[in-house]
Design a protein that fits this description.
Helices cover 70% and strands 0% of the residues. By secondary structure, the protein is mostly helical. Among the domains are: 43-124; 197-219 and 273-339. Helix 2 runs antiparallel to helix 10 (347-364) and helix 3 (155-172) runs antiparallel to helix 4 (178-192). It starts with a helix and ends in a 32-residue tail after the last helix.
Length: 424
């Protein structure tokens, strides 16, 4: 083979390889174009899906925003309406408050005017009608004196109260009151003539007697016994055997049998240990008498003391010094009266009551000014308070006769209801 043939073969080979390469490149480019179209289609589809999703989401969001916006608008309108209603209520309250302030100001001004008028009237009363207050004070004192006299049987305190009433009237220096002051002096003289009784002293004396009951000695109940033999000793002489036998027999039987001669003059017999009940019965009678003293029960007082005196004389030795002193004190208390006749009325009380009617109460009934009713009510309240105080108040020096008597030595009485005469 020649070189031309070899060259031609090379050329042919090169042409063939070139054609192959062109064919390969053409197929590769077509494949690339198809893959690019597929990718583009996929990208377009994805974009379409994304765009549709965004469009749907946007539509949903817009509808939700529109709904929320509508709700907010509705709430805002409701709030505006409520605000308007609240504003109207506030305006009404402000208006009402203004009216109340105006009314309060008017009422305060009216009250201040009435207070000034009342103060002026009270000032005029305190300056020009002091005498009427002194009359009311004297009337109060006289009423208190009557209550102390009739309720507590205390003429001393009653006389002191009458003296205070007379002092109040004397401060007025009014000649028209001489008749009332004369009646007060007459009442004081009547009270001074009353016999004073020391009720506390009587109760203390009864307590002391109760303490001395245990010191009383019982009467000797062997005074009526048969006389004993002068000589009871046994003789040593055998010839006196009969006398010795008789003396021994009497000495032996004296411990079993006691023979006593009794007549009507002897004290009644007491059973053993019955003196305890006797003493307690005496104490109980003294206690009853002590309790009757502040109640002014003179009959009960005397009956109790007489019963105690009877028992002491019947069962105790009346010759003993302690018994004699006891009976002397008991008889003195029996003769001591505890009830005193008190005056049934006080002359000055009726006259002061009439004076109160003509002066004080007539003054209180006058109500010529706007504050007259208030002044009248205040004065009547003062008068009522004075009357209540007259009912409730008790001076400190009048408390001595209202204490409950106590018998310090009185023990609980056992079988006290039985009479000593039935215990023998």
């Amino acid at each position: 083979m020649t070189e031309q043939d070899k060259t031609a073969d090379k050329v042919n080979d090169e042409e063939v390889s070139t054609e192959k390469q062109d064919t390969h490149q053409t197929s590769t480019s077509s494949k690339q174009k198809r893959s690019g179209l597929a990718v583009s289609a996929i990208a377009i589809a994805i974009l379409v899906v994304i765009g549709g999703g965004m469009y749907y989401f946007t539509q949903q969001s817009n509808s939700q925003l529109v709904h929320d916006n509508n709700q907010l608008k509705q709430q805002i309108s409701e709030l505006i309406e409520q605000q308007n209603a609240d504003r109207q209520r506030v305006d009404a309250l402000i208006s009402t408050n203004t009216e109340l302030k105006n009314h309060a100001r008017d009422y305060e001004e009216q009250l201040n005017r009435r207070m000034q008028e009342l103060q002026a009237h009270v000032t005029s009363l305190s300056s020009s009608d002091v005498k009427n207050w002194l009359i009311a004070q004297a009337d109060f004192m006289v009423k208190m004196a009557g209550r102390k006299l009739w309720n507590d049987h205390d003429p001393v305190t009653a006389a002191v109260l009458l003296k205070s009433a007379d002092t109040s009237l004397a401060e007025m220096n009014d000649p028209s009151l001489l008749d009332v002051r004369k009646a007060i002096s007459s009442d004081m003289a009547r009270l001074a003539a009353i016999n004073q009784i020391d009720y506390d002293g009587i109760i203390l004396r009864l307590n002391q007697l109760s303490n001395e009951v245990d010191n009383l000695r019982l009467a000797d109940l062997n005074n009526g016994d048969a006389p004993e033999e002068a000589n009871t000793d046994i003789s040593e002489d055998i010839s006196d055997w009969q006398q010795n036998l008789a003396r021994s027999w009497k000495s032996f039987t004296s411990d079993f049998i006691t023979v006593r001669a009794r007549d009507g003059s002897e004290a009644p017999l007491l059973a053993p240990n019955q003196d305890i009940y006797l003493r307690e019965n005496i104490r109980s009678q003294l206690l009853i008498a002590a309790q009757a003293v502040p109640r002014y029960q003179e009959e009960t007082y005397k009956q109790s003391l007489e019963q105690a005196s009877t028992w002491v004389r019947a069962y105790f030795d009346v010759e003993a010094p302690a018994t004699k002193a006891f009976l002397t004190e008991l008889d003195d208390l029996i003769n001591q009266p505890i009830d005193v006749d008190m005056p049934e009325s006080l002359e000055s009380q009726a006259k002061l009551e009439k004076l109160m009617q003509t002066r004080v109460r007539n003054l209180l009934s006058q109500s010529d000014n706007p504050a007259g009713e208030a002044v009248d009510a205040a004065a009547q309240a003062v008068k009522k308070e004075s009357d209540i105080a007259a009912d409730a108040a008790i001076p400190a020096d009048a408390q001595t006769h209202t204490e409950t008597p106590e018998v310090a030595a009185a023990a609980p009485v056992t079988d006290a209801a039985k009479s000593p005469e039935n215990k023998g």
